[in-house]
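Pasting as-is:
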Amino acid sequence: MKDDLFSLYAFNRWANERVIQALRTVPQADYTREMGGGWPSLRATFVHLATATDAWAERFRGREVTALTPETDLPELDDAVAVIFDAEDKLDAFLDTLTPERLAAPFTWTNLRMERKSSAFWIVLRHVVNHQTYHRGQISSMLRRVGATPLSTDMVRWGIDVHEAAAKR
């Protein structure tokens, strides 16, 4: 199960890098433009993705996180990119510490509504990636709405890239 997590988080990092690459093609006015929908803008969606990921990374380190950094504190794309890259580094380091017993044990946290929640740790770790996948889909849709071209972030595309890179070695 732990080996699967390494692959899942490697895929997640790859997918986030592709989203960032696509976001870099968008002018700041489009990055911040409110379009309606679940999250009002590309910035709001990406900041949420980045700060929620960092919140989970901090929770896994034993810190109580019950609020996310406001979008206004991360006005530029590179501000949120720094947060997501830092969170990914924390998560990668954390994965190395996991044991089968820890993965099977409950993980308890306080959510953003100040409610105490518990779930098997392996489920929570997968949720972090699933949550990002959901919001990457929203970002792809928004990118199309501003005339930009999203890059595929499908897991099978990652698998193809990994396979092709290994074949070139």
